[in-house]
Amino acid sequence: MALYLELSTRSVLGSLIVLGIILFARSNKRKEKLPPGPGGLPILGNLLQIPKDRAWLVFSEWRKTYGDRVIYLNIAGKNTVVLGNYKVAADLLDRRAGIYSDRARNIVAGELLTGGLGFTFAQHNDVWKRM
To answer: Where in the cell is it found (predicted)?
Structure first.
């Protein structure tokens, strides 16, 4: 019984160490390609750093720290960017709208309910343009 308990404790501890190393390695890989931004917690990301009201004050402080162009945030696992000034926002959202104007895929609404033909939930691509 003692041997079984010792083995299970070791295996749980070893699994946790391996999982921690994998999560640490994955978090470092993602940040290489992303704009600068504040660090966050492993699962919640920057969720607790953003107040529910007057969030723009926090974003303004981050602009001073990380630059006034684009700031990267991870909000509960969702990659998010904050555009720091009008020029950057106009460039990305107006001049390059064709690149960034798409919707996240909603499998249930887009495929199952409409058979893949739903206009409301369709991706902004060639099929959408033909509809």
So the answer is: Membrane
Token representation of residue 47: 């969720």
Q: What is the pLDDT of residues 75-124, one digit of tens each?
A: 888 888 899 899 998 888 888 877 766 666 666 655 666 565 555 556 66
| Cα gap 13→9, rounded to integer Å | 6
* Token pair 């290489």 in the structure block, residue: 32
Query: Residues 6 or more apart from 125 whose CB is under 8 A from it?
Result: 102
User: 128 and 122 in contact (C-beta within 8 Å)?
Assistant: yes
E strand or H helix at 80: strand 78-83
Instruction: Note the helical H segments in 33-96.
Output: 55-66, 86-90
The pLDDT value given to residue 66: 92
| Contacts of residue 37, Cβ cutoff 8 Å, sequence gap at least 6 | 46, 62, 66, 71, 72, 73
The per-residue pLDDT for 24 is 76
Q: What is the pLDDT of residue 31?
A: 55
Domain ranges of the chain: 1-33, 36-100, 103-131
Length of the chain: 131
Q: List, in order, residues 6 or more apart from 124 with CB less than 8 Å away.
A: 101, 102, 103
